[in-house]
Amino acid sequence: MATYALQIAGLVLGGVGMVGTVAVTVMPQWRVSAFIGSNIVVFENLWEGLWMSCMRHANIRMQCKIYDSLLALSPDLQAARGLMCAASVLAFLAFMTAVLGMQCTRCIGDDETVKGHLLLTAGVLFIITGLVVLIPVSWVANSIIRDFYNPIVDIAQKRELGEALYIGWTTALVLMVGGMLFCCVSCCHEKSSSYRYSIPSHRTTQKSYHTTKKSPSVYSRSQYV
């Protein structure tokens, strides 16, 4: 029962991580305009994402424009786009693998060994996905912080951390925790199966004892006669 609860918890965390990965990939709030110095324009907010940039006017109207070319992005955003797309695919594959390995799933039969291997694979994929999400989010955040404190960069070009980065860090943590839960469930499956096959039952030992105890042969009877 505890193993099944861990499976459900891991699947829920994996599903939340998968949705979060896709959301972070499409969100435009990776970089937001910084209101510092004389750059105080409270009626306009500039958002820069992986696919588009948006301008929001007075919290009412928002205009978005898709980037004309991949080369229009900075190197960190270019790498982040590729890594986040790969993370979305990995998260989907990990989630589907976890569904097939669940105890309540009957698509592949009731072989506990196969399901244990599937859960281990899903756990490893979730952990890898969390790392793949963490790398571009931290890279973009580092570049934003470096430019923010760089006196050479113009004030109008400085940006702050957007909501997508915070959601990305949370998503990476959720994915890795879900993957660890599935790895723990797989280890519990292997330990229980090895314990089950290493210790014979009482009925089996009695049966083997009776079969090994043979009746005296005809030759031994003739000796007594």
TrEMBL record:
Matches recorded under InterPro entries: Claudin, Claudin_CS, PMP22/EMP/MP20/Claudin
Keywords tagged on the record: Cell junction, Cell membrane, Membrane, Tight junction, Transmembrane, Transmembrane helix
Bilayer topology: Multi-pass membrane protein
Major localization class: other
Keyword hit for Methyltransferase: no
GO CC annotations on file: bicellular tight junction; plasma membrane
Ranges that cross the membrane: 79-101, 122-145, 165-188
Leader sequence residues: none
Compartment(s): Cell junction, Tight junction; Cell membrane
Molecular functions (GO terms): structural molecule activity
PANTHER family in the cross-refs: CLAUDIN (PTHR12002)
Family membership: Belongs to the claudin family.
Function per UniProt: Claudins function as major constituents of the tight junction complexes that regulate the permeability of epithelia.
Record-given protein name: Claudin
